[in-house]
Request: fold
Amino acid sequence: MRISELSARSGVAVPTIKYYLREGLVPEGERRSATSAEYETIHLERLRLIRALVDSGVSIAATRNVLAALDDPPPNAHRLLGLAHAAITAAADVEIDVSAAEELATGLGWQPGMCDDRVLTEVARALAAIERAGFEVPADVMPVYLRSIRAMADAEIANVPTESVEAAVRYVVLGSVIVEPLLLALRRVAQQVASAERFGGSEASPPPE
Amino acid sequence: MRISELSARSGVAVPTIKYYLREGLVPEGERRSATSAEYETIHLERLRLIRALVDSGVSIAATRNVLAALDDPPPNAHRLLGLAHAAITAAADVEIDVSAAEELATGLGWQPGMCDDRVLTEVARALAAIERAGFEVPADVMPVYLRSIRAMADAEIANVPTESVEAAVRYVVLGSVIVEPLLLALRRVAQQVASAERFGGSEASPPPE
Reply:
């Protein structure tokens, strides 16, 4: 197909496709003349994937890393996950103290050596931001977070397909990134549902005492 | 205190503070002369809060909305949550079909009228992005997501403080925004822990069969 059809079918504008081509995110099509090239289904699928990643808030640089992980998978399923997470996580900040993060992670079943520094650093950064905001997660809530998040991760990892490395890579890389906006959106719905049940959903209901 | 001390104590650079003042995110200090003003603890707290929100990935526009919600709280605790969510969510896109999102939300206990269109639209957008990426949440995993997220929301809403509207506002607004990066970071740790348990954490372990 021509670039115009590729654009129509992927929903990505032609100038944006050209930008992705220049950046190497999408492989070149087969040249037909000085000004036109032929594109295949793989180009279309790649474009749809890029659009989904970018729509999920993943930067172009991180998208490049995710695509690289898909194109050149590591041989081991556990290292895969580290790679997927590294692709979407800023480099670990050596100055940050991760001891509080480690203590919290213990509640997830974490033991030393089980995960890379980047994700623990991310937990430490998030804890620091919460503290800076003067917010505190209630003591009753944190254990529920840990238990619920561990249950979700168990289900996710139990479903890693093992019939091929490609399938495992795709599941792990996309599953960690693409699902995040869904989980955050579902959390907001669940909060409104729980709030409606506790406080009453109508505008006429009284304020909390 | 002078703006230089305010900068030192908040960790926010003076030009950035001046930008926030111009944007109305931080109230003006009391003028002492044509070139200097005096700032108080409330300015410091406001700056720390802005920094935490911005660090959590909240845009300046959304930060303004969150601050407005804190400064001028609605009288009803349930509407509060809608307001907090609206502050950090893009306007609902009328063209998007929310029927799949509503069906999914039913698994969270959702019933018509319980939550505003924005959060359902966000779920619909996230579902569309997942589909565009050619990804599918496994049938075994989705019910675990719904159950776990509902459990987290129940704990969060059960802990909304009711001793004052201000305390409720602060908890609801900050709790929905500031905690998100922590939950995503903990999810990555939990995934690596579950993966280490299933596949073995060392680089020497064999690839999945």
Summary: DSSP finds ten helices and two strands in chain B. The CA atoms of residues 10 and 45 of chain B lie 8 Å apart. The radius of gyration of chain B is 22 Å.
